[in-house]
Amino acid sequence: xxxxxxxxxxxxxxxxxxxxxxxxxxxxxxxxxxxxxxxxxxxxxxxxxxxxxxxxxxxxxxxxxxxxxxxxxxxxxxxxxxxxxxxxxxxxxxxxxxxxxxxxxxxxxxxxxxxxxxxxxxxxxxxxxxxxxxxxxxx
Amino acid sequence: xxxxxxxxxxxxxxxxxxxxxxxxxxxxxxxxxxxxxxxxxxxxxxxxxxxxxxxxxxxxxxxxxxxxxxxxxxxxxxxxxxxxxxxxxxxxxxxxxxxxxxxxxxxxxxxxxxxxxxxxxxxxxxxxxxxxxxxxxxxxxxxxxxxxxxxxxxxxxxxxxxxxxxxxxxxxxxxxxxxxxxxxxxxxxxxxxxxxxxxxxxxxxxxxxxxxxxxxxxxxxxxxxxxxxxxxxxxxxxxxxxxxxxxxxxxxxxxxxxxxxxxxxxxxxxxxxxxxxxxxxxxxxxxxxxxxxxxxxxxxxxxxxxxxxxxxxxxxxxxxxxxxxxxxxxxxxxxxxxxxxxxxxxx
Amino acid sequence: xxxxxxxxxxxxxxxxxxxxxxxxxxxxxxxxxxxxxxxxxxxxxxxxxxxxxxxxxxxxxxxxxxxxxxxxxxxxxxxxxxxxxxxxxxxxxxxxxxxxxxxxxxxxxxxxxxxxxxxxxxxxxxxxxxxxxxxxxxxxxxxxxxxxxxxxxxxxxxxxxxxxxxxxxxxxxxxxxxxxxxxxxxxxxxxxxxxxxxxxxxxxxxxxxxxxxxxxxxxxxxxxxxxxxxxxxxxxxxxxxxxxxxxxxxxxxxxxxxxxxxxxxxxxxxxxxxxxxxxxxxxxxxxxxxxxxxxxxxxxxxxxxxxxxxxxxxxxxxxxxxxxxxxxxxxxxxxxxxxxxxxxxxxxxxxxxxxxxxxxxxxxxxxxxxxxxxxxxxxxxxxxxxxxxxxxxxxxxxxxxxxxxxxxxxxxxxxxxxxxxxxxxxxxxxxxxxxxxxxxxxxxxxxxxxxxxxxxxxxxxxxxxxxxxxxxxxxxxxxxxxxxxxxxxxxxxxxxxxxxxxxxxxxxxxxxxxxxxxxxxxxxxxxxxxxxxxxxxxxxxxxxxxxxxxx
Lengths: 139, 347, 551
Fold this sequence. Notes:
The structure holds three protein chains of three kinds. The longest helix of chain A has 20 residues, at about 120-140. In chain A, helix 1 (about 20-30) links the parallel strand 1 (about 5-10) and strand 2. Chain A has one domain (about 5-140): Rossmann fold, CATH 3.40.50. Chain A has helices at about 20-30, 45-55, 70-80, 100-105, 120-139; strands at about 5-10, 35-40, 60-65, 90-95, 110-115. Chain A is globular and about 40 Å long. Chain A is built from five helices and five strands; from the N terminus they run βαβαβαβαβα. Chain A is α/β, with parallel strands linked by helices. Chain A has a five-stranded parallel sheet with strand order 2-1-3-4-5, with helices on both faces. Chain B has 14 helices and eight strands. Chain B has a seven-stranded parallel sheet, sandwiched between helices. In chain B, helix 2 (about 20-35) packs antiparallel against helix 5 (about 130-145) and helix 5 (about 130-145) packs across helix 11. By secondary structure, chain C is α/β, with parallel strands linked by helices. Chain C is about 50% helix and about 5% strand. A five-stranded parallel sheet of chain C has the order 1-10-9-8-7. The radius of gyration of chain C is 24 Å and the shape is globular. Chain C starts with 9 loop residues before the first helix and ends in a 9-residue tail after the last helix. At the A-C interface, helix 1 and helix 3 of A face helix 4 and helix 18 of C. Strand 2 of chain A pairs parallel with strand 3 (about 100-105) of chain B, so a sheet runs across the interface.
C-alpha cells in the first residue's frame, strides 16, 4: 500500500523578493503530482536546510536573482550535509551566469536551470532523477 | 548514542527517534505517510515512549488565520510562562483531487519557528485516501510523541470527513473562526462546532468579532442544554469556552492556551482514568480506521473480486445482492444482513 | 443574411471573405490573453470625443498631460543604474550624464532595499550585487560627489526604507550647501506594491502607510519639487500580471495613498501634484499604448470627481516607464535590443514623461557599459530620427486603440469594485487576493509559452539549440563587501556615539506618537546613524511583515 510522492522544497534564499519563478515552478510541480513545500521569501541557508530536514524532501529547489548564488548556494549545501541531508537532490535556477552554473554543478548541485527553461523540462528532470534514486534505494 | 540496530532499519529509526534524532523523526513520518511496509515495526518499537504529548487539533474554515494562530501558540508554548515546551506541529493541506499533488505553504506563517531547535514543523498533504490520511496524521503524531514532543499542534482545514477523523484523534480540539470570511452561521451548518472543545474568534480587532463570539456562545450553550447524548458521553457539562483573540497581533494567545489547559484539567478531573478513558476511545476509533483501510486494501487488491462483481452484475444481480454475497463469502453467511439491521454504532 | 449576393454590404462581403480566408494557427489574443477582433471600426469606439479624449493638456488628459507634448520638451531619458560601492556608481552616473542622459536613477542592492547595513550577517554575499550599497549619509555623499543636487533630478528606487533614504538625500543636499527646496526627483516609496509584487518591505502595511503620509507632509513643506511617491505598476507587471491588472492595482494603490493623505489631515491638492506613476512597457504594442492613455483618463476622473481635487496638477497622471525586463531572453540576447526599442516606442506614443530602456544583457548579469550605451542610444534614436515626436498622441482615433483604451478602463473599474467589496487594498493584501491574481496570470502566461500559444523568438521558435551567447559578464567582486564593511566600521568609530544613540532613541519614541518621522530621520542621518540601525528601531517598534499564504 505504498503511496510515495515526490516531495520538493522550493526555497528563496537571500534578500531578493522576486518570487514569480519560484511560485510558478511550485505550482507546476504540484500539477505534476508532487508535494511541494514553499518556504517563503528571505530565507537563510540554515532555515532552508532545517526546512528540508523537517519536511524530509527528496528535492531542494532554490530560486535566486540577486547575484548572491556563489556565496549562498554552497552554504546551503553545507548546512544540508551537516544535517545528514547530503543526499538530497539539489537544484535551482535564476540569473546565474554559465560559468557559475558549471562551478556549482561540480559542487553538489545536480543541475541548474536558467531563464527561458520550460517547466516541463524541470518536471521531467526531477521525476527521472528521483525515480533513479528510489530504484537505487530499493536495490 | 548506542545503536543495536542498523541505522536505516525500522528498529534503528525508532531508536534514533527516541534518542532525539530529527532526521530519523522526519523519515519515520514519511514512512507513515507512504504506508511503508516497515512502519508498523517501527511504531511497535516506539510504543512504550508514546503517550506523553498533549495533542491539540486546530481547525476552521480557510482564511480564519489558523497558521498564524498555530505560530503564535507555538511561540507562547516556547516561553517561560507556558513551560518552554517541546513543540511539534503537523500542518495538513489538501491534495489536488486531479493531480494528487499538493502545495504546502503553511511554513510561511511560521518562519521564526524554523530556527528553534525545540520546535519541529511538518507539512502533510491529505493525499487520496481519507482513511489513509487520518491514519498517517495520527501515526505522525505518535512518532512526534515518542520523539519527546510535549505539545503537538495539528492544523487542518475544517472541511471533509478525513479532517474530522484527524481531529477526532486529538485530545483537545480548537475551532478557529473569524468575522466576515469564515461566517459563523456557515460553520455551524457545516457541523464544525460539533468537534470543538474550545472556540476561538480570531481577528478580534475586526468589525463583527464580538457579535460572532456572542452568536457562538449562544450556539454552544443551546447545544449543551439540548444534547443529552453529548452530556452523557463526556460525563461533565464542559461548557465550550469562546475566546476572542488576534493571532496577527499576538493578543490573547495566553487565553487560548489557558482554555486548552482547562479542558485538559477537566478530562483529568474525571477520576484516575479520565484521561486514559478518553484516549482509549480515540484509539478504538483509530483501530477501526486501520481495520477499514487494511480490509479495503486486501479485499480489493486483486482484480479477481472486481471481475466477479462485474460478472454478477452483468448476469442481472442487484448491487445489494452482489454485496451480500461478497460479504458472506468473506465473513460467513448472513454477515451483511446482520450489520445492516442494526443502527450504526459509530456516528 | 440577404438572399442575393449582389445586395451584400461591404461589411457583409468582408465578413464572407473572412470566413473563407486562411487563418494561421495561433490565438490572436493580446499578450495579456485578451481576445481581440480581426478589425475595429466606428462602432467600437466611445462616441463622446470631448468627454473621453479632449485635448492634450486638458481633462481627462487621455491625449497627454502637456498641450504640445514632445514638441515642447522630450521625455527625460533616465537609465536606472547602480552597483558596487557608492564610488563605483558615482562613476557610472557621471558616465551617463556625459553621454547625454538628463536624469539619474539609483538602483540599490538588496540589503539596502531591505533596510540592512552592509555589515549585517544577513547581507552576506549580496552587498553591491544588484545595485549600490548605501548604509549611511557618508555613502550618499560619495554617491553624489561632484553632482550638483540642485541641477540634476534624481530618482531613487527604494520602498520599505524609502523615508530613511530620502532623509539621507535631503541631508546630503544640506551638506552640499543646497537648499532642500531646490532638489528635484522622485523617491519610489510605494509600499503597497511591495506587499503585492516585489516584496522588499520593512514593516507591516499600517505603520508603513503612516511613514508615507509623514513623507507627504514633510515634503509638501520642505522639498516641494520632490515627487514623494512613484506609484508603480512596473513590479506588478513583472511579477506576471496582465496589462489590465497592472493598471487596476496600481491606480487602486494610488487612490489608497490619496485616502491616507487626506485622512492624515492634508488637503488633497497639497500633495496630489507630487504623486507620480511608473509603468511597464511590455511587448504588446497597442495594448501598452492604450494602457497609458487609460491610466491618465481614469486618474483624472477619480481625482476630480471622487477626491474633489481642484488643482489640475492633481488630476494629471505623470509617469515614468521602463521597458519590460521579463520580455528579455537569455537566448540570443542581441534580440533584446529590438524588443526594447519597440517597447520604448509604445511608451513614447503613450506619452511617457521619462523612460528607462533595458540593456540586452540583463537576463545574464548586471548590464555592461556597452549594453547600457546601446539602450540609451535606442531612446535617442527614437527621439531624434523616427519623427514620432512631431505629433501629439498620434494613435488617437485609431478604432482599435480607442477600443482598447475603453476596455482597459472598464477592466480596471471592475477590479476597483471588487477591491472595495473585499474591504480595500490593505485587506486584499492581507488576504492575498491581489498576490493570487498576479500569480495566476503569471502561470497562465508561462503555460501559454510552453504550449507555443505565445511565441518567444530564440526560446520556443527560431531557437538555436544549446548555443551559448557570446556576451561579456559584468561581475561585482568580493572587495565591494569588504570595503563597505570597513567604511561602516570607520563610521561607527568616528561618530559621536552618544549623539547617534540619542537620535535612535528619539525615533523609537516618535514611533509611538504622531511626530513626523521623516524629520527624525533627517536628524539621525546628520548624526551618522546607519540605515540598518534606524530600520532596526522601526522593525522593533512596528514589527516585521509576514506574507500571507497564497499558494
